[in-house]
Amino acid sequence: MTSIFTRVDPVPLGPAVEIFTLMKAYREDTSSNKINLSIGAYRDNDGSPWVLPVVRKVEADQVASVDHEYLDILGDTQFSDAAIELLLGSDSPAIKEKRVFGIQVLSGTGGLRVGAELLRSLGHSHVYISAPTWPNHRLVFQNAGFENVLSYRYWDGKNKKLDFDGMIEDLKAAPEKSVVVLHACAHNPTGIDPTVEQWQMILNVVKERNLTTFFDSAYQGFASGDLTRDAAAIRSFVSQGMGVLCAQSFAKNFGLYNERVGNLAFVVNDPAVIPNIKSHLTLLVRGNYSNPPAHGMRIVKKVLTDSKLFAEWQQQITTMANRIIEMRKLLREKLEKLGTPGKWNHITDQIGMFSFTGLTEQQISYLVTNCHVYLPKNGRISLCGINSSNIDHLAQSIHEAVSKYP
């Protein structure tokens, strides 16, 4: 008789998750110059986590009044309705025609997983993700049962820009009904988004090839500071009659990282299919986590449905976005002032929380080992980890690494 708990049938060691390995190494580093550019969580100019004041206010008001009863399996419908209105705009024809619905999920990751399981159960077997993409995309779809997790070209490493021609060529070659995962804004990890004209060409290919569009919206408002601008790609698809899925996360734009607040939005062509889709989703969620948590959701719902609180929130996400934009500008200026080899305009050309630096693994190893600057091997840095007290050390360290290992 064997068991996973005995040495007779040993459990192999699984691969480490790089970001959390870097976080551990950073915490154990005793250097006063250490910088953590790995984790995607907002930090203020003092390097401290920032709880949005509007979140503090709502949380304090709700402490004495909330209960801890179970939510429905598909979550709070008022929250989902508010999340969809944020995503598509209150004047969206799809909303008015009742072709839209959403379910509360466990942040963006949970939305992706539930959506992936639904699509797989309905017969989809091919999914295309960008190269590169957020590492969890591949794992989520693989674990949901997709046999073919494929990539479309996205990053042109030589020129540090979008490989748009490669992307279009790969999407045109995708089998019909393949799922294509698109980043709504602030592409992770590159920070490069298609232009308005390029989005239209992507839409045309998706329609021509009859692909299933699955948007990942993790940074609405947090990327540019403009909620409408950051949702423009999705709104364009919907306004032109496209059906889409979209996983919405409220971790970044509300600073609610550990509350797992998310919504999975569906835009369909025929409202008559909605009850059938919900029936499948109910079984999937019931067999997965039963029902979603309430605390963080209630905070987001209150802010999204109260005009005064909503205005305060908009100001605060603009504050976060502007600080990141300023750090981009300063880092580029300091690298160019030092005469760091290469061109660094891509830092300010990119948008959002992350920058794909183009640094090599050898340069990155030097930064981690010699300069106490922690970032993953693909060269993606979180701009949130940069502030006025460490930017000079960071720029000097990058200059040394690039100069030493050209």
What does this structure look like?
There is one protein chain. By secondary structure, this protein is of the alpha/beta class. It is 45% helix and 14% strand. It is built from 17 helices and 13 strands. The protein has a 7-stranded mixed sheet, with helices on both faces. It is globular, with a radius of gyration of 22 Å.
In short:
The protein is of the alpha/beta class and 406 residues long. It is built from 17 helices and 13 strands.
Core attributes:
406 residues, two-stranded parallel ribbon, alpha/beta, seven-stranded mixed sheet, globular, single chain
Largest sheet: 7 strands, mixed
In sequence order, what are the helices and strands, one letter per element? HEHHHEHEHEEEHEHEHHEHEHHHHEHEEH
Q: Tell me the structural class.
A: alpha/beta
CA radius of gyration is 22 Å
Calculate the terminal CA-CA distance, rounded to whole Å: 57 Å
Q: Which strand order does the major sheet show?
A: 2-10-9-8-7-3-4
Report strand %.
Answer: 5-15%
Shape: globular
Helix content: 40-55%
Helix segment count?
17
Query: Which whole number gives the mean pLDDT?
Result: 93
| Low-confidence region ranges | none
The count of strands amounts to 13
